[in-house]
Amino acid sequence: MGVPVWYSRSTPGVPRPRSAGSGHDDRAIFTEPHFAGDLRMPDSARQAVTVNLEKGLHLVPCSLIARTAGLYECDIQIRKEDRTADAKTMLDLMALAAENGSTLVLQATGSQAHDAVNALAHLFATNFADNDAPRAR
Predict the structure, then answer these.
(1) What is the pLDDT of residues 94-130, one digit of tens each?
(2) Residues 36-51: tens digit of each pLDDT
(3) Distance CA 101, CA 50 (A)
(4) Alpha helix (H) ranges present in 4-129?
């Protein structure tokens, strides 16, 4: 079951919340609610990877991760122990300070979560060989 969304007379199709306190909003039409969508959990994916680069995650691999992550419409995070980084942000990735041998967890939620995690895992599996970098479909 979805969440009811009420529509305004002044802007058709734009949700407008009921006024708090006044009890009456003459601009809003309160008839049958329109449901804003399904509240199911979004698609998600998770995979552990190991950093096998002599210098760890430095500027070039972080750039490849951010570029690859940016191709997918989902939220992607990379976790190292107690630190979490947005995979689409190079500074976050650099702040992980993931050295050679570190285990990272790739996590994504959204419509392309599985594809995104697979693409990022592929980067780690190929030691960031740029010519093999996956492309979004």
Answers:
(1) 999 999 999 999 999 999 999 999 999 999 999 998 6
(2) 555 555 689 999 999 9
(3) 6
(4) 59-69, 90-95, 113-125
By the 8 A CB rule, do 65 and 93 touch? yes
* pLDDT tens per residue, range 12-66: 444 445 544 545 544 444 444 444 555 555 689 999 999 999 999 999 999 999 9
Q: Say what the pTM is.
A: 0.66
**Torsion angle of the four alpha carbons 89, 94, 98, 100, in this order, in degrees rounded to the nearest 10:** 110
Contact in structure between 78 and 104 (CB atoms under 8 Å): yes
User: What structural domains does the chain harbor?
Assistant: 4-35 (no CATH), 44-131 (3.30.1340.10)
Q: Quick check: 5 and 11 in contact, CB under 8 A?
A: no
Burial class of residue 57 (count of CB atoms within 10 Å of its CB; 0-12, 13-18, 19+):
buried
